[in-house]
Each structure stands twice: as C-alpha cells, then as structure tokens.
Design goal:
Layout: E1 6-9, H1 13-25, E2 31-35, H2 38-46, E3 52-55, E4 58-61, E5 67-70, E6 85-88, H3 96-102, E7 111-114, H4 121-128, E8 140-146, E9 149-152, E10 164-169, E11 173-177, H5 189-196, H6 198-201, E12 203-205, H7 208-232, H8 238-244, H9 255-258, H10 262-277, H11 284-289, H12 292-305, H13 312-318, H14 329-338, H15 345-356
Parallel strand pairs: 1-2, 1-6, 2-5, 3-10, 6-7, 7-8, 11-12
Antiparallel strand pairs: 3-4, 8-11, 9-10
Helix pairs in contact: 7-10, 7-12, 7-13, 7-15, 10-12, 14-15
Bound molecules: ketopantoate.
Ketopantoate binds near residues 225, 302 and 309.
Keywords: NADP, Oxidoreductase
Protein name: 2-dehydropantoate 2-reductase
GO cellular component, one term: mitochondrion
Length: about 375
C-alpha cells in the first residue's frame, strides 16, 4: 500500500523550510512532521501545527496545518502507517536512532531523502539497522543538497517562535538517487512534489552521477570551512582574511597559522575527493573543475556568501552538542585510508580536536 503522506523527520531550519514550501505549493499532499522530543511536539500542536516563514521583514504562515507524530517514549508502532516517503532533515549524528525507530514502517517501496551535510549516513543506516542489513528490505535512498540560506528565529527551544524560520538568501535544492541503478521517475510523489515546490525550493533533479559530484563538492567545502571556523572560533567570512594573512616579521609560524588555513586544507582534501570520484583521466574540463584552485575559489566564495554565519559545526561546539565531524572530516580520513592515499594530517588533527574537544597532545578545546 502506498501512503500519500510525505513525512519529515527533523523540525530544524531545513525541515521547516521544505515543509513550508510543500504546504504552500502542493497543498493536496499531506505533510507530517515527526518529532523526537515530546516538548517540541507539544509546542507544535499547541501553536496550531503551523510554520511561519520570515522574509524581508514579512511573515508568511503556512496555509494548511501539518500532521504531527511523536516517536519518543510510549510511541505505539502498531498503530502507525507505513511510510512511503521520508525526508530526513536531522543532522547526520542524529539520524540513526530515529530512523531505527521508524524502520518497521519503511521498506523496499519507501524513498528516504537524506537532506544533510556530509557523507556516510546511508551506509551507517544499512549496517546498523538490522532490518536494512538485507538489501531486499532497504528503502531507496536519495540525497538532497540545499544551498538556501535559512536561519532559525530561535529554533524549537525558543518559547516565542519555535516554528518560524528566516530566509537569509535564495538557493537551490538538488536531489538525486544514491544508487547507480536507480532510474529517475519524475512522477514519483516525492520528486514531483519537490519539483512543484520550485517557486520556493528551486528543485533540480540530478542523476546518480551528478548528485554524487554535487555531494562530494559540498563535502569538500564543509571539510574546509566547518572545522576551520571551529579552530579559529570565527564566522565563515573570516576565512578569507585568514587565507591572505601572512606572518608578521619575527612572528613564529605556528601550526595554526601555517596549516589551518583554507589553501592548506584544500591541498590535503583535493587529492582525496578527486580519487574518490574516480574521474575519467585526461578530461581537461573535469580536471580544471576539480583542481585545487577551483576548490579553493569555491570554498572562499561560499565563505564570503555566508560571511555572517557561524558554521553549523561551530554552533554545535558552542552549544556543547555532537558535531557532524564523523560525516565530514571523518569521511575524508576514512576515504584516504581506503584508497591508500597519504594521511591528510591537518584533517586528522582537526578531527581529533573537534571529536574529543582536545588536541592529540592534550590541549583542551
Ligand atoms: O553548510 C554550511 C554549514 O555551516 O554547515 C555552510 C555552507 C558552511 C554555511 O555555514
């Protein structure tokens, strides 16, 4: 049986943004938000199951109310419907547990769109969720990359406007299948609904090869920007100054100054992403697009375009939460090892610093 509802796990900025766009542009498709915290679930119900978009100092309430489900303690699986379409908008490190709870409602006819930073989440779901160990039971995974600038006006912890989000800049949503063999069916409910929401989302449907390129490009950007903003405790825009800063006469060139700058990180990460992509050799266009120069240019452009932002990783560190380091820098390190490449030393140091909140030699974060 196909369930016509689109479920969204994670009511953070991206989850709210996509839910609001679906409700605005495809009101005939029911959308249900799934909550893991009772508190947020209750607040959502009490506030009338509405989401508010804040743009150019004007607010726009979602036209229709949303469905809401709570999957924390006392969750009754036996009364729950199977899920045909699930958008996962949680952070990588917050995905395994809730998807594990939902796994009995997901199966080979379900589509799961992972809308998050980093790589490696779907492999983790397949290896850690018992029901998904058999390829025959696995959902079809899609990846989504959202480049819109969205900030919460407080997030779900804000007692005044937990379900409001603010648009800081337009952007696109690229989606595509993670399996090489999957044909794109534009009439599939999830795909079609996201495309119909294009006036807001600007959805582009890519084939497997192109979504993989887009994912790895975004990962390379995040693997440079996010850990560097943590180590320097700075907004994204400061990375350009850091890049051009030279040691003053007589100033000792510390590891921080020499290594932890965008060009150094790109020089380490570039070879790993190029090898992971296994690009056909001798294609001058591809060689140029994936050169260290092009990656560095894109990193600095993204840092400039999001200059005021504190990266999601820096915000997680400041809020004393787990970070996405395992799916970003961790992925680079694992890939380098798997491909027999030189160990990316700077990335390894940053990984340890961010994962364990201290340097390998003991200094505390
Ligand atoms: O994706 C981001 C993040 O913070 O995770 C960027 C694009 C770097 C914006 O801050």
């Amino acid at each position: 049986m196909t369930n016509p509802t689109i479920y969204i796990l994670g009511a953070g900025n991206i989850g709210k943004y996509v839910a609001h766009a679906l409700a605005t542009h495809v009101p005939s498709v029911p959308v249900t938000l799934i909550f893991r915290k009772r508190d947020s679930f209750k607040k959502f119900i009490d506030s009338g199951r509405k989401l508010t978009r804040w743009i150019d100092d004007k607010t726009q309430d979602s036209k229709s109310g949303f469905g809401a489900e709570y999957i924390g303690q006392s969750y009754k699986l036996n009364r729950a419907m199977p899920i045909s379409n699930l958008i996962v908008a949680t952070k990588g490190q917050q995905t395994l547990d809730p998807v594990g709870i939902l796994a009995p409602r997901l199966g080979r006819n379900s589509t799961v769109l992972l809308l998050q930073n980093g790589l490696g989440v779907h492999e983790e779901l397949n290896s850690q969720i018992v029901a998904f160990r058999s390829p025959a039971n696995r959902p079809s995974y899609w990846a989504g990359i959202c480049s819109a600038g969205i900030s919460g006006r407080g997030g779900t912890n804000n007692p005044f406007c937990p379900f409001t989000f603010q648009m800081a800049g337009e952007g696109s949503l690229k989606i595509g299948p993670l399996s090489e063999n999957e044909e794109i069916d534009q009439s599939h409910l999830l795909c079609q609904s996201l495309v119909e929401s294009s006036p807001t989302l600007q959805t582009k449907v890519l084939d497997h090869r192109r979504i993989k390129l887009a994912q790895i490009r975004k990962l390379a950007m995040n693997a440079v920007i996010n850990p560097l903003t943590v180590v320097h405790k700075c907004p994204n825009g400061a990375l350009r100054h850091l890049e051009s800063r030279r040691a003053l006469p007589g100033e000792p060139v510390t590891a921080l100054a020499a290594e932890f700058r965008p060009s150094y990180m790109v020089a380490e990460i570039g070879p790993v992403v190029r090898a992971a992509l296994n690009l056909p050799s001798g294609d001058p266009k591809l060689d140029k697009a994936w050169s260290d120069e092009a990656l560095l240019r894109d990193v600095l452009r993204l840092a400039d375009a999001t200059a005021e932002n504190r990266s999601s990783m820096l915000q997680d560190i400041e809020g004393d939460r787990h970070t996405e380091i395992d799916y970003i820098t961790g992925w680079i390190i694992r890939k380098a090892r798997e491909l027999g490449l030189k160990c990316p030393r700077g990335s390894q140091k940053l990984y340890h610093y961010i994962k364990f909140r201290k340097w390998q030699n003991g200094e505390v974060l």
